[in-house]
Amino acid sequence: MLSILRSLVQEVNSARDLQEALDVIVSRVQKAMGTEVCSVYLLDPATNRYILMATEGLYREAVGKVSLAYSEGLVGLVGSREEPINLEDAPSHPRYRYFPETGEERFRSFLGVPIIHHRRVLGVLVVQQRESSRCFDEGEEAFLVTVSAQLAGVIAHSEATGAISGLSLTGEEARDVSFSGVPGAPGVAIGEGVVVYPAADLDVVPEKPTEDIEQELELFREAVKAVREDIERVAKRLASQLRPEEQALFDVYLRMLGDEAMPGEVANQIREGVWAQGALKQVVQQYIRHFEMMDDHYLQERAVDVRDLGRRLLSHLQEGEQLHLEYPARTVLVSEELTPAMLGEVPKGQLVGLVSVKGSSNSHVAILARAMGVPTVMGLVDIPVNQLDGKELVVDGFEGQIFASPSDDLRAFYQAICDEEDELIRGLEVLRDKPCETTDHHRVSLLVNTGLMTDVVRSLSHGAEGIGLYRTEVPFMIKDRFPSEQEQREYYREQLEAFAPSPVTMRTLDIGGDKSLTYFPIQEENPFLGWRGIRVTLDHPEIFLVQVRAMLKASEGLNNLQIMLPMISNISEVEESLHLIYRVYHEVREEGYDIHMPKVGVMVEIPAAVYQIRELADRVDFLSVGSNDLTQYLLAVDRNNPRVAQLYHSYHPAVLQALVRIAQDAHVVGKPVGICGELAGDPGGALLLMAMGYDSLSMNAASLPKVKSVIRSVSREWAMQLLEDVLLLDSPHVIKSCVDLALRNAGFGRYLRPGKSTTIAFAEKALS
Fold first, then answer.
1. ∠741-626-500 over CA atoms, to 5°?
2. pLDDT grade, residue 328 (50/70/90)?
3. Do the Cβ atoms of 335 and 356 come closer than 8 Å?
4. 372 burial type by CB count under 10 A (0-12 exposed, 13-18 middle, 19+ buried)
């Protein structure tokens, strides 16, 4: 059966269209099971009816003509129950529905299984037999279920292809075809899709030796030189759209092309007798494996950059001609895997949106998109990319959705959102220098999360009061070795000077487990629960001590440094870290540096830490909740995995209860507590956190004006009543709806992201 399944899937995957795929399915399944009839009924989203789309054994003339209501007949029963139904005598069943045009009155035995993809019923796969004495056995039922599960994704992909092409299952015009991913950069864009394909495919490069090593080395040097020139040209083209600091992202590419980085390793492989293309493939794939093993999503995304560089180098080695694309006035760039270099190919002022099948909100593309203000959706599974070329697209970067071939009403709906967002941003600029204070004079500090100087510049222009989280992984990430103390000191000084005298909270190096650097690989059975964060740096004090020393020296004359320890799960980790920090402090003072002892805090991002708040607070100066990781650990959900992203919810009752407990326990011992994460940057979430008692909220710079506007317009008493009400609820979706309703009633409906409820309201309006 396994070989039959494998052959069947391969045939279906190579089918030209959905109809050919369905014809293959019914033909091969009928033959494999030795049954007289095999049919596929697909659920048409437009009519919510099951349509006979393919059959082997029934009358062919019935295909496309016979349809059943959602719960009609045995087919409807299989779909509504979402489980197999196996009958020896189908006509005697009370739900049996007879269609004379199919000729199925001859067949009595019936086995139907649902075709389900991501919880959505796509259709029903049916086999039938003439003899009433035959009952399909458990093995046959299991085979049909397996076929259904294997083919669901293929059918979903083909169905989507047909829908994007403008036709529904019934052949009627299809509009407003939607796909869901994860938000990459906020905003809404309307434009024409331009699909970009990778320049070359490393996976198909064969392994072979070379007889002329010097010639292969020269070919590779020329390829490196050409790619460097390409990247420098792209960076120059984007110079007018980005601040100088934001162009630092391209330095990552150029550093990777340095002689001591990737090219040096490729050259070594060539000298060992491997031809240039094969050597490049080996090194690039090794780099990709290292990055993809990492736990930190920001660092994982570096694999995209390495892969892109590899493809560009290979393209030059193969002397492949780059595709010359035509970019319309309003370009929505679409690719399996977008890279920063692809953005630079679009002429100035013509890029309005980005769509990437792979990637997350931590990718370089997402960072650049936020810096450039380009709405972005990433992590779109089962989307037929090639069908989006030339199609009109709506990109909803708030909710992580795209719409293909929008109707006039949907287009007008999203255009109004674009106009309102532009007007809102202009109106909030006056708040930049005003304090974040409620109407009853409760003060909250608004901070920002940063990793690059681009974040700092934008943060200052939005009125941030300091940095709540500086990710120190960046200097380590762009090197092919651990950065020296002096190199780290220069990076940290930039951040500290930019915000002085406001506080800058620097998280110590957060690597390890499956978050390894290319030059510090770690392989583990269960990396999420393994050797990572503070566990690594305490096991390697030579790394920890150098980093802390660089931080302290960088703070001289500014004294706005705060140090934060990541992934704390035990009191002993805090005590050991403090011992090392105090040791370095005294050593640096003895060297003649005039510095103050910085405040030291811990990140609360592991559930165990939630229950040790008082003990932790007794030993440090402050606490900061990493709400994104804490939510993921509490719910066991990777929020950047589009297949389970719908289970990740910051408003989950368990998350809110944990956050309440953290704030209460911290204040009992008189220590300030802040929070950094997406919940802090959500206007409704910020209100709940302020009501819980959080002293500071750290967020993306773009979220800061809206959060400040909302907090300045309400009383803390009002927010505390809202918190009290939602803590009685047991559904994250109901809690979110209640918070949104409260904001709407308070006059902040324009701040709410255009979510599913808005789209549903639009649909209801269109149908009325």
1. 100
2. very high
3. yes
4. middle
Share of the chain above pLDDT 70, in %: 83
Of 247, 718, 762, the C-alpha closest to 438 is 718
Please state the φ and ψ torsions of residue 194, each to the nearest 5 degrees: -125, 110
**Least confident residue range of 125-134, 166-175, 458-467, 505-514:** 166-175
DSSP string, 568-612: ---HHHHHHHHHHHHHHHHHHHHTT---PPPEEEEEE-SHHHHTT
Q: Which two tokens stand for residue 331?
A: 């370009």
Spell out the residues 6+ positions from residue 502 whose beta carbon is closer than 8 angstroms to its own. 464, 465, 466, 467, 560
b/e map of 669-689 (b: 16 or more CB within 10 Å)?
A: eebbbbbbbbbbbbbbbbbbb
- CA-to-CA separations, 422 to 189, 246, 273, in angstroms, rounded: 12, 22, 58
Q: Which of 577, 515, 518 has the alpha carbon at shortest distance from 548?
A: 577
Spatial CA neighbour of 712 closest among 469, 428, 499: 428
Phi, psi of 351 (to 5 degrees): -90, 115
DSSP state of 502: S
CA atoms 532, 533, 534, 537: torsion sign: positive
CB 455 within 8 A of CB 701: yes
Structure tokens at 708: 């400040």
Is the Cβ–Cβ distance between 43 and 49 less than 8 Å?
A: yes
364, 442, 649, 652: the catalytic one is: 364
Rounded CA-CA distance 682/100 in Å is 58
CA angle (332 as vertex; 420, 319 as ends), nearest 5? 155
Who's near 663: CB < 8 A, 6+ residues apart?
673, 692, 693, 694
**What is the share, in percent, of the chain residues with pLDDT greater than 90?**
39
Mean pLDDT, the chain, rounded, equals: 83
Catalytic annotation present for 676: yes
The reported pLDDT for the residue numbered 301 is 67
Instruction: Single out the catalytic residue among 117, 442, 462, 676.
Output: 676
Interior angle at CA 154, CA 151 and CA 156, nearest 5: 105
122-126, 145-149, 610-614: range with lowest mean pLDDT: 145-149
Mean pLDDT of 282-291: 80
Q: Tokens for 394?
A: 């709506």
The pLDDT tens digits of the residues spanning 73-121 come to 999 999 999 999 999 888 889 998 888 887 777 788 999 999 988 778 8
Per-residue model confidence (pLDDT) at position 519: 75
Q: How far apart are CA 266 and CA 202, in angstroms?
A: 14
Query: Per this entry, what is the length of the chain?
Result: 768
- Give tens-digit pLDDT for 602-628: 999 999 999 999 999 999 999 999 998
- Residues 24 and 27: their CA atoms lie apart, in Å, by 5
Poorest-pLDDT segment among 49-53, 126-130, 320-324, 474-478: 320-324
Nearest residue to 648 (alpha-carbon basis) of 623, 611, 625, 679: 679
The first and second tokens of residue 75, run together, are 């087919």
